[in-house]
Specification:
- This protein is of the alpha/beta class.
- Helix content is 35%, strand content 26%.
- The chain contains 14 helices and 23 strands.
- Strand 6 and strand 7 form a beta hairpin.
- Helix 4 packs across helix 9, helix 5 packs parallel to helix 6 and helix 10 packs across helix 14.
- The N terminus is likely disordered.
Length: 467
């Protein structure tokens, strides 16, 4: 169980200490692998790695792009000490603090557990005025950040420890720059897996990137030698702007062409991949009002339903070749890093949030960590194939979502967006995306033993927003 954070009486020292149920060697290795920094970055306060020389060993440097509110700045950190399975330390070379030294300490607690301690010694600029005006804010921010970091560390390592086969996978991922993949890739690499991103620009071979062009049908099978798992997440964004005939064409072809190309290429490989995990969406079911839907239900009659139906059908060559194929019918994936939550957060934080239409339409949501967890689950569960509903077991109405988010933020949400206005501005997209009611249950995930990290909406939002 995590131990409460300890902030000493000296303002410049912060300590967060937690017990992790994994050997010290495992926890240290997790921190030393590519993606650890990205995985530990809170989604409400993201950072971008601009440059990295080395890993966490002494002498290596990392250049980060960060923000203080709306103001961007660069943070240059240098690793100064390293003792394998014991500690590593970094200090600020350039950044907003007068000084900053962060020591990561690892202490064994028997053979199967350890204590993880983050010790930060820092000083604010413009003492004593910096302490007076910003001291409490900085301490509160550290509390939020390290609470999140330790929770993610413990949960991620538990997922990797629980997998039946500890052999590292070679995983091909499309849509690598998308919101889901941006969190999934660090999760996989910190678990020891090798990730090969598919890109449409000239590939960076140092990052194991592979070029593809779905429009031109270009994907060289020779570049996929040794791939045992494929995660296909690429697709045109459906939630931006009106669905003109050209936009609809892009939405359909971005999914069907890419899926068909990956499925056909995978089918020709020898040996073939163990599994193809292909993104889809709960839009498959269409607007079903209050009806509770499972993987056994057929498609709806909406445009998005047809898109998802064609999207899944495009994977037929892989299925026919004997590859296990899983379709992730993903609900509204919640993260402040992008997607629906990121769009509405500024309004809710300003006290301008509110329900959409009547607010009675059901919203099948899922936290971003559980999207990652569900993907990892289906990779290792050989009994799972076909459609899988990637949603929380607790769908809510739009009104319930509105009230919960406003409550977490401690802000009012008394406004509303009339359905007629959405239809007028966004047309078909306005009717099918924000106004559609889809009440979906994750039957296959629950029946195969998936344990949700955050099945409760309030708990999910509190974790993702650091509140």
């Amino acid at each position: 169980m995590p131990v409460d954070s300890i902030i000493s009486m000296k303002k410049e020292i912060f300590i967060k200490r937690s017990r992790i149920k994994a050997p010290v060697e495992t926890v240290f290795a997790w921190h030393s692998r590519p993606g650890a920094l990205e995985r530990l970055s809170p989604p409400w306060d993201p950072l971008q790695v601009i440059e990295r020389t080395g890993d966490i060993q002494q002498g290596s440097r990392t250049v980060l792009k960060m923000k203080a509110g709306p103001v961007p700045f660069r943070w240059i950190a240098e690793h100064t000490d390293y003792e394998e399975n014991r500690l590593f330390r970094d200090r600020q070379v350039k950044g907003p603090m007068a000084s900053w030294v962060h020591t990561h300490i690892f202490e064994p607690d028997g053979n199967d557990a350890c204590f993880l301690e983050d010790r930060v010694e820092y000083a604010l600029r413009f003492h004593p005025f910096g302490d007076f005006f910003a001291g409490r804010m900085v301490r509160n921010k550290l509390e939020r950040i390290f609470k999140y970091r330790h929770a993610v560390t413990a949960a991620d390592i538990a997922d990797h420890q629980a997998r039946p086969d500890k052999t590292p996978l070679n995983i091909l991922i499309s849509g690598a720059s998308g919101v889901i993949a941006s969190a999934l890739i660090p999760f996989l690499t910190t678990g020891g897996h090798r990730v090969i991103p598919l890109v449409r620009r000239p590939p960076n071979t140092a990052k194991s990137e592979v070029f593809w062009n779905p429009d031109a049908g270009c994907l060289n099978p020779d570049d996929l030698t040794g791939i045992d798992t494929i995660i296909h997440l690429a697709g045109e964004n459906i939630g931006q702007g009106r669905w003109t005939p050209q936009k609809k064409k892009c939405i359909i072809e971005s999914r069907t062409k890419g899926t068909a190309l990956i499925a056909e290429t995978a089918a020709r490989l020898n040996p073939k991949p163990r599994v193809l995990v292909c993104a889809s969406a709960v839009g498959y079911y269409g607007n079903r009002n209050q009806w509770e839907l499972t993987e056994k239900d057929g498609p709806g009659n909406d445009f998005i339903s047809q898109v998802c139906y064609d999207w899944e059908k495009a994977a037929a060559p892989a299925i026919e070749s004997g590859i296990r194929v899983v379709f992730l019918r993903i609900g509204v994936a919640l993260t402040p890093a992008g997607g629906a939550l990121a769009k509405v957060l500024p309004l809710f934080r300003a006290g301008l949030g509110g329900k959409i239409g009547t607010g009675q339409q059901f919203m099948s949501w899922i936290g971003s960590d559980d999207v990652i967890g569900a993907i990892y689950h289906v990779i290792y569960k050989d009994s799972i194939e076909g459609p899988v509903n990637v949603v929380s077991p607790n769908p809510v109405t739009n009104l319930e979502f509105t009230e919960t988010l406003a409550g977490v933020l401690s802000m009012p949400a008394k406004l509303s967006v009339p359905a007629a206005a959405l239809k007028l501005v966004f047309g078909e997209m306005g009717r099918e995306v924000p106004l559609s009611s889809t009440r979906v249950k994750p039957v296959k995930l629950m029946e195969t033993g998936y344990k949700f990290r955050n099945p409760d909406l309030r708990g999910t939002l509190s974790h993702l927003l650091g509140i």
